[in-house]
């Protein structure tokens, strides 16, 4: 039961990764790439959660918490440095 | 019996949570401009993480891990809107817009009126 | 005579400092308690020794890194808060499904708008909470905040007509009303009641 669910989740997450990487390559601006990175990190978190649930352990919990903060800091930092150059 | 119910609930949570990640990625790819893509990047993640953390809580089945799972979700809840706001604000300021996808823009008039003040 | 007034002034000064400290402590206490609980949950260990150590660390952090003052109304309605949380969870579910549906069927043809919503309240905490909630529930991402007139400018997905825009504005005001019922000030609540009547 759980193994089947893990396979389906794995396929969905793999497809999601491919789509996000396509957006990251195409993304017209750096902001698109930044949020694509954010979504990619969220997909990694999702994969870790699937692993924890299927294999009955909690080893990745600290990484889940840290990764949430990491994505936040990353996108905020990038958006701080993207400024309108025409006025300055 | 109890085990079966727990496993079925976990399986549903896992698949639905992964589906939400997939929805986010699909929206990122298919929506036409930066601001619409922000919607896709922000909203499904919150529900997806909630479902996946519920699955983890169901499988580990101990009360000790519940607070840290709740905290991880709350952290996502607090940080996701802030980063979405920061990115879309920077996007609007640097004119990463597609005017043709916007039905109306009430901010445009304000920004041009106070272009020296708004920072 | 001169000395007495000097001492009086000093006593008054010390009293004022103490009062300010006490008030600040009342604001910071929930923060310290939350950080202590976080420490316990990170270690998955809620024994007394661990919690006391976490309490000392959070006390140090709070006194080392000062936060800007926040005005708390002091009112908190538990029943309304519970209703708000349930409504919020339901709306998060709807939001995710809406984004999924639009991404699947509408895709590149989706139309949106940037809409300004003037809020009733002017304090920073309330505006922040409303903006947070609005970003997570269906349809909207906050793009810009005008602090002076406390107006939120939001990017709203899937808006085609003026009616859509007006109904969104109404739902955003409704979100603010829900938050005021949970933890707004007395005056805001009275204003809300007047509006309903």
TrEMBL record, chain A:
Asked if the record carries the keyword Transferase, the reply is no
Among the Pfam families in the record, one is MrpF_PhaF
List localization entries.
Cell membrane
User: Which key words are in the record?
Assistant: Cell membrane, Membrane, Transmembrane, Transmembrane helix, Transport
Topology with respect to the bilayer? Multi-pass membrane protein
Q: Does the keyword Cell membrane apply?
A: yes
Q: Give me the segments passing through the membrane.
A: 6-22, 34-54, 60-82
Principal place of residence: membrane
Task: Quote the InterPro entries the UniProt record gives.
Answer: MrpF/PhaF-like
Family per record? Belongs to the CPA3 antiporters (TC 2.A.63) subunit F family.
Q: Which PANTHER family match?
A: NA(+)/H(+) ANTIPORTER SUBUNIT F1, NA(+)_H(+) ANTIPORTER SUBUNIT F
Q: What is this protein called?
A: Multisubunit sodium/proton antiporter, MrpF subunit
Species assigned in the record: Zhihengliuella salsuginis
Automatic annotation (TrEMBL), chain B:
Q: Does the keyword Membrane apply?
A: yes
Give the similarity note.
Belongs to the CPA3 antiporters (TC 2.A.63) subunit G family.
The protein's UniProt keywords, in alphabetical order, are: Membrane, Transmembrane, Transmembrane helix
Q: Work out whether the entry's keyword set contains Membrane.
A: yes
Q: Which residues cross the membrane?
A: 47-75
**Organism name:** Zhihengliuella salsuginis
Q: Superkingdom of the source? A: Bacteria
Q: What is this protein called?
A: Na+/H+ antiporter subunit G
Automatic annotation (TrEMBL), chain C:
Keywords associated with the record: Cell membrane, Membrane, Transmembrane, Transmembrane helix
Topology of this chain in the membrane: Multi-pass membrane protein
Is the keyword Cell membrane in the record?
yes
Against Pfam families, the record matches this protein to:
MNHE
Q: Where in the cell is it found?
A: Cell membrane
Q: Membrane-crossing residues?
A: 25-44, 50-72, 84-105, 125-145
- Give the superkingdom in one word: Bacteria
Principal localization? Answer: membrane
Task: Indicate the family of this protein.
Answer: Belongs to the CPA3 antiporters (TC 2.A.63) subunit E family.
Mind telling me what this protein is named?
A: Sodium:proton antiporter
């Amino acid at each position: 039961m759980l193994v089947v669910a893990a396979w389906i989740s794995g396929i969905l997450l793999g497809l999601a990764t491919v789509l996000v990487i396509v957006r990251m390559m195409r993304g017209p601006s750096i902001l698109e790439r930044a949020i694509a990175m954010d979504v990619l990190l969220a997909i990694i978190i999702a994969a870790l959660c699937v692993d924890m649930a299927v294999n009955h352990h909690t080893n990745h919990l600290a990484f889940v918490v840290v990764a949430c903060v990491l994505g936040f800091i990353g996108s905020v930092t990038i958006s701080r440095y993207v400024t309108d150059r025409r006025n300055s | 019996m109890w085990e079966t119910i727990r496993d079925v609930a976990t399986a549903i949570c896992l698949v639905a949570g992964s589906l939400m990640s997939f929805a986010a990625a699909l929206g990122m790819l298919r929506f036409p401009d930066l601001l619409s893509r922000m919607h896709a990047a922000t909203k499904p993640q919150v529900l997806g993480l909630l479902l996946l953390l519920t699955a983890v809580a169901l499988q580990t089945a101990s009360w000790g891990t519940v607070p840290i799972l709740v905290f991880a979700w709350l952290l996502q809840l607090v940080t996701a809107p802030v980063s979405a706001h920061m990115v879309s604000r920077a996007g609007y300021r640097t004119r990463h817009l597609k005017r043709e996808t916007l039905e109306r823009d009430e901010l445009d008039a304000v920004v041009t009126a106070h272009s020296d003040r708004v920072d | 005579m001169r000395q007495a007034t000097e001492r009086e002034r000093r006593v008054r000064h010390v009293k004022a400092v103490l009062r300010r400290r006490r008030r600040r402590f009342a604001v910071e206490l929930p923060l310290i308690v939350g950080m202590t609980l976080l420490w316990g949950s990170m270690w998955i260990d809620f024994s007394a020794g661990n919690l006391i150590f976490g309490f000392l660390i959070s006390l140090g952090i709070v006194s080392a890194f000062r936060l800007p003052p926040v005005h708390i109304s002091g009112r908190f309605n538990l029943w309304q808060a519970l209703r708000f949380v349930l409504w919020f969870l339901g709306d998060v579910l709807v939001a995710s499904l809406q984004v999924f549906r639009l991404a699947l069927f509408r895709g590149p043809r989706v139309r949106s708008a940037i809409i300004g919503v003037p809020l009733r309240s002017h304090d920073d905490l309330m505006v922040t909470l409303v903006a947070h909630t609005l970003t997570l529930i269906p349809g909207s991402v906050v793009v810009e905040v005008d602090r002076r007139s406390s107006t939120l400018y939001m990017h709203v997905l899937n808006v085609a007509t003026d009616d859509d825009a007006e109904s969104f504005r109404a739902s955003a005001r409704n979100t603010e009303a829900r938050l005021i019922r949970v933890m707004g000030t007395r005056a805001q609540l009275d204003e809300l009641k007047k509006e309903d009547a």
